[in-house]
Every structure is written in C-alpha cells, then in structure tokens.
Write a structure and sequence with these properties.
Blueprint (H helix, E strand, L loop, with lengths): L5 H11 L9 E3 L2 H9 L6 E3 L24 H6 L4 E5 L5 H7 L4 E4 L4 H15 L2 H21 L6 E8 L8 E3 L5 H8 L2 E3 L10 E2 L1 H7 L3 E4 L3 E2 L4 E2 L3 H8 L6 H4 L3 E3 L12 H14 L5
Parallel strand pairs: 1-2, 1-3, 3-4, 5-7, 5-9, 9-12
Antiparallel strand pairs: 5-6, 6-8, 10-11
Helix pairs in contact: 5-6, 6-11
C-alpha cells in the first residue's frame, strides 16, 4: 500500500479531524496507555501502538509507531488519528504532534493519583467517563484491600531494581521516591531503601545496596523489553547475588526475580501489581 507523503498526511488530518467529536482512531504511545484504552473497551478504536505494547495480547496485532521516547511521526500521521495519547516526557511529543495538526493529549502517570486522573481523562475524551470512574473506584478498593491485609505486620525494607547490565550487578537502576513503584511498595507493606533519593530512577551502586542492606531485593534484571521477559534464568540471577552472603536478603533467601512488566505499566493492573509485591515481600512468592 502506498504511503502518503508527510504533507498529504497533515492536510488530511487538518480537514478530517473534528475536534469536538469522540475520537474513533486513537494512537497510543505508551504500553500503560494501551492497557487503559483496552480496559475501557476502546480496543476497536486503537489504530496504532508502540513496539513495547504487549498487553492485552490483542495489542500485538496493531500497527507499530516506534517507542515512547522515539515515536515515528510519519507512521503516526499515516494512520490518520483523531487522537494521540502521550505520557508526559522530556521530548515534547504532544507539542510536536499538535504543531503537525494532530490532536494530542499529554497524560502524567508518575503516581497512583496520576493514574486515576489519566483514566478519568481518557474516559472524558472518548465518551467512556462512567466506565473510567468505575474503574478508578475499583482500583482504589483493590489497593485499600492490599493495604489492609498487611496492617499490623512489620514493614519490610526493600530494593526494587528496574534494570541493570546483562549478567552483572553493574549499571543497576532502582525505583525511588515519587514513582509509581515506590507507592505500590508502600501500599504492600514495604519501605523503600531508596526513598531519600532526589531522582526517581537513580543509578544504584553495589556499595549502596550493601550499605542499605534491604530485607528483600526485587530484581527485574536484564529485562528484555521486546519480549516482555527477563533474558536471564532465575538461577543466574540468584548466583549473582549469592556472592554477597552478608546481605540480609541473600542470607534469608529473599532475592526475588521479577519476570513481569505489570509493575512498570501504571494502569488497570495496579491492584494485581500491589498484590504481587505484597506476596513477594511477605510470602516469598514469585511474580507471575
């Protein structure tokens, strides 16, 4: 099929987009947004997603428009969207799309409250406001139930690593204060050892881990984003940490592999994520 020129795409968008109408051709530029759209029953309106949008499985069949920080503007325009949803970012994607004549809406998803607001905003934009409000209320109830289930238990100090260099404990990156993951850990009974960091996702040295000595280490490892799973076997991950038996988490067998991206996609699966973190902190379970 012949691809339209950039100029032709812009012209078509400027003449075809009805700014006040409920959108029927939506492009998502983040996995979390894609999950929200499908959860609200808008999957049939989604015409483009990022290459990392894997949930729900139906999203895998949609045309790809690049990545969160490197969207393919020409592909987006060729899909003739009447709404593009973007997470707040440092490269001003929404502003650039608006300059090209595309209706783009920027959403913030740093915190749990931001997720609630994002869901409600998507509901307003798409005519699904009632469904969005119900979903937010259900999520609030789920998180409240998780918090209640750990009430009275001693809080567990924890380190959550969202990435590191392949096969080594170098290049570690953790989730600190002000992040969605940090808030979920708090709900689930954890105390984040990186809570004092002024950076949301700081580099973490081995010396910092040894000094903070968390009771539980939750390690996403060398996460293979394209496949949505770690590239390491769990035994390899545990062998890396076994070299440091003085760590409480190592000595008590509380180093846990996190082989799922549910924790890094703020959205409809927050309740599931909180329950899994609780089980990892207290029950020694494995994330699914």
């Amino acid at each position: 099929m012949r691809r339209l020129s950039l100029g032709a795409c812009i012209a078509a968008l400027l003449t075809a987009t009805a700014m006040g109408a409920a959108p029927t051709r939506i492009v998502s530029t983040a996995p979390s947004i894609t999950e929200m759209l499908y959860a609200l029953g808008l999957g049939d309106r989604v015409v483009g997603v990022t290459q990392y949008c894997r949930y729900p499985p139906e999203a895998l069949t949609k045309p790809k428009v690049g990545t969160f920080l490197e969207p393919d503007f020409e592909r987006i325009l060729a899909l003739r969207p009447d709404l593009v949803l973007v997470i707040k970012n440092p490269v001003q994607i929404a502003q650039r799309l608006n300059q090209l004549g595309v209706r783009a809406e920027e959403l913030n998803q740093d915190s749990i409250e931001d997720v609630y607001r994002s869901l409600e905003r998507i509901g307003e934009l798409t005519g699904k406001r009632e469904q969005a409000v119900r979903m937010v209320n259900n999520l609030k109830q789920e998180l409240a139930e998780v918090s209640k289930s750990v009430a009275g238990k001693p809080r567990r100090t924890a380190l959550f690593l969202v990435g590191r260099s392949p096969g080594t404990l170098q290049g570690m990156v953790g989730a600190a204060s002000g992040t969605f993951i940090d808030q979920l850990m708090t709900v689930a009974g954890g105390t984040n050892v990186l809570k004092a960091s002024p950076i949301q996702y700081p580099r973490v040295s081995l010396e910092q881990v040894l000094s903070s000595d968390p009771q539980v280490i939750l390690d996403m490892g060398d996460f293979a984003h394209a496949e949505g799973r770690p590239s390491e076997e769990e035994a390899q991950l545990l062998a890396l940490w076994a070299k440091y038996p003085n760590l409480t988490a190592v000595r008590t067998h509380q180093v846990r592999q996190v082989p799922t991206d549910v924790f890094v996609h703020p959205g409809p699966r927050m309740g599931e994520a909180a329950r899994q973190i609780r089980d990892l902190l207290y029950g020694g379970g494995t994330a699914k």
